[in-house]
Amino acid sequence: MIIRRLLTTGLGCGLLAVLACGLLPASASAGEPVAPQPAPKVELVLDVSGSMKARDIDGQSRMSAAKQAFDDVLDSVPDDVQLGIRTLGADYPGNNRKTGCKDTRQLYPVGPLDRPQAKAAVATLQPTGWTPIGPALKAAANDVKGGDGTRRLVLITDGEDTCNINPCDVARDIAAQGIHLVIDTLGLIPDATTRNQLSCIAEATGGTYTTVQHRQQLTSKVKQLVDRSNDTAVAPVAVQGGGSCAEAPLLKEGLYTDRETFSQNRWYRIQVKPGQELRAAVSVFDDRTVNTDYGVLLRGVTERGREIVRDDEGGTGRTDAVSAGIRYPKPHADAGTPPETVCLQVGNSFSAPAGVKTTPGLPVELSFDLTRSPHRPSDVAFYGLGRGWWLLGLLAAVGAVAGLLTGWIARWRLNTGRTD
């Protein structure tokens, strides 16, 4: 009876050991060193123009709120991020537009962060001059050039550009250079014109726009954007959805951004091959004041209009985004079967209070992923072990042998113990 228990225990331990080895990542068993990721580069571009004197952020001036936020952000910057600071409108107090539009300088160079030195530099700033956003973005793009890491600019301003260069065109030119530079914009108590301009800058480079009304909101958003620089994912690609399935752009796997007006529906298309599973997700961000009780719909249909899958999620005004996601596995078929075109409908039920601008539309982020469908009868249930029942049989056989050996050794030890 004891030997039978030992054999059973040995068999179970052997099989578990084999399964555990199969489930461990190959890199963990190989012990190969992981190559370090290239250091990301981030530059904070801060507006120090005269309008930053306004005292409308939590009872203090916009400049004071920005300084306090920078102190908190600099304390939390990851060690592997190369961070710099550039100002605009910090030095020239005069009325000459030509001179004022050149007023941008690098306050702290992009590189390893010396926190006390960077904080001391920020502490000296006083609201002074013009708002040359376009020239500042041009210079900042040069500040972060070089290297293979991600590049991100975070623009913090309270007004629109006061120079003759359209900053949205500057952002489009930067995007056209192919250096994968993302520009995120934050508007401090912005008016409609400023909001539209900053939204355009962000959209041109796959970045985000956020309205800021409180100091803590500014701190948390800048921290979030700096931390996002460590994300090695590909920057989102700007796309425009169609008014119907027939007008929808045909997309591939990836991350995309779009804008959708209130209560609008937009369409996108993607092809799914037999044996693949489509995983799609959408997030709609309320970057301005909206009415409570809203929702987002993500629906997959065939080109003929038959619904395949859908998800709808609602919100009550307590979050700044609402998301929905779907999964659609395309069954396996014989070789030569063409891919299926799936039409994806993205809709929203947002509405705005009176006086709130509804243009530009709400920011939309879409993610499309095509994976090998797990819904196959011959697949083993354990991911990473391989496919097919033959592997399960091999594992069972190896486990059985290991169990028998363990039982035999245990029996030999028992017999040896009795002899002694």
TrEMBL record:
- Looking at the record, the residues that make up the VWFA domain are 41-229
Question: Could you tell me which Gene3D superfamilies the record lists for this protein?
Answer: von Willebrand factor, type A domain
**UniProt cross-references to InterPro entries, sorted A to Z:** CLCR, VWF_A, vWFA_dom_sf
Pfam families (UniProt xref): VWA_2
Q: Which domain of life is it from?
A: Bacteria
Transmembrane regions: 388-410
Signal sequence bounds: 1-30
Record keywords? Membrane, Signal, Transmembrane, Transmembrane helix
Q: What is this protein called?
A: VWA domain-containing protein
**Organism for this UniProt entry:** Streptomyces polygonati
Q: Source taxonomy lineage?
A: Bacteria, Bacillati, Actinomycetota, Actinomycetes, Kitasatosporales
